[in-house]
Amino acid sequence: MKIAIAGKGGVGKTTISGTICRVIAKQGEKVLAIDGDPNPNLSVVLGIDKDKPPQKSLSTDIIERVEEGESWKFQVKMPFDEIIDTYGQDAPDGVTLLIVGKPEQAGTGCMCGSHTVVRELIHSALTSEFNAAMVVDTEASLEHMKRGTSQHVDRMYTVLEPYYRSLEAAGRFADMARDLGIKEVAAIANKVRNEEEADAIKEYCKKINLPIAVMVPFDENISAADLKGMSIMDFDENSSAVKAIEKFVKSLI
Ligand SMILES: Nc1ncnc2c1ncn2[C@@H]1O[C@H](COP(=O)(O)OP(=O)(O)OP(=O)(O)O)[C@@H](O)[C@H]1O
Ligand SMILES: [Mg+2]
User: Fold this and answer.
1) Hey, which residues does 244 pair with through a beta bridge?
2) Structural domain boundaries, residue 152
3) What is the pLDDT along the chain (253 residues), one digit of tens a residue?
4) Does the beta carbon of 39 lie inside 6 Å of ligand 1?
5) Measuring from atom 9 of ligand 1, which residue has the nearest CA?
6) Ligand 1 contact via 14 beta carbon (within 6 Å)
7) Atom 12, ligand 1: which residue's CA is nearest?
8) Whole-model pTM over 0.85
């Protein structure tokens, strides 16, 4: 299972990605969490000690351009297991984190290199023996969709919040995901406070033909955990948002 979590800024992509990883791992599955955001913060949501020095992030050096007859392609230089050994970071419940999107330093050009690294990394993982559920947390822009960063995942979930611009953006992410040929594309509705909001989301998603995988309620405990720089799984794993995500994960496995 290779899934990507996309959506507009601040909708809850990282919170949902990290919690999905922890919930899957708790069920005994091997999980690889990929932080594909150039401003990475998945590690805190996964529950890695925030005072721990960060692991070396993957750089564009790990991919190479290979000539193929008249054309060429990118490919990852190292075997996937070696990538995990060198760059992987241990997170609670046995999750492994790979940080990919972080630029080496300011002023070194555009992000296309890191988008290519994420894309080729997922491709390499798919063709490797490394058998783990993989969850990619993406950045809040359509740019990574244009560059096909998540092209090789089998499911993409576009996270949305109950307000019009977020719903509209989710529709755009979903269209691009389908254009990339991703087999399963659905919405994760997040921060839903009441029936009225749930109904508005259902109505909009029905109109644009976007299935809703799960409705995650607005949960004060998530804000409280965030304030402390903790994973909701370590703060209160019986919280309502976690319960909704657990139900969703059950439907996946
Ligand atoms: N279900 C929820 N209930 C309450 N607050 C939530 C919920 N989900 C996320 N949040 C809060 O929303 C804010 C944004 O969450 P998060 O960082 O996960 O979003 P993001 O989409 O990854 O943002 P970015 O676009 O910056 O990467 C955080 O303050 C988080 O605590
Ligand atoms: Mg994020």
Assistant:
1) none
2) 2-252
3) 889 999 999 999 999 999 999 999 999 999 999 998 878 899 999 999 988 877 777 777 788 888 888 888 888 888 888 888 888 999 999 999 998 866 555 555 555 567 777 778 877 877 777 788 999 998 887 766 666 667 778 899 999 999 999 999 999 999 999 998 898 999 999 999 999 999 999 999 999 999 999 999 999 999 999 999 999 999 999 999 999 999 999 998 7
4) no
5) 12
6) yes
7) 12
8) yes
Total domains in the fold of the chain: 1
Which residue in this structure is represented by tokens 């921060």? 191
Give the number of the ligand closest to the Cα of residue 140.
1
> Are the C-beta atoms of residues 11 and 159 closer than 8 Å to each other?
yes
- C-alpha span between 159 and 139 (Å, rounded): 12
The closest residue, in CA terms, to atom 7 on ligand 1 is 191
How many residues are there in the chain? 253
Q: Using the structure block, give the residue that is written with the tokens 């019986």.
A: 238
Rg of the chain over CA atoms, in angstroms? Answer: 18
Q: For residue 145, what is the domain's CATH number?
A: 3.40.50.300
Instruction: Convert the chain into a string of H (helix), E (strand) and C (coil).
Output: CEEEEEECCCCCHHHHHHHHHHHHHHCCCCEEEEECCCCCCHHHHHCCCCCCCCCCCCCHHHEEEEEECCEEEEEECCCHHHHHHHHCEEEHHHEEEEECCCCCCCCCCCCHHHHHHHHHHHHHHHCCCCCCEEEEECCCCCHHHHCCCCCCCCEEEEEECCCHHHHHHHHHHHHHHHHCCCCEEEEEEEEECCHHHHHHHHHHHHHCCCCEEEEEECCHHHHHHHHCCCCHHHHCCCCHHHHHHHHHHHHHC
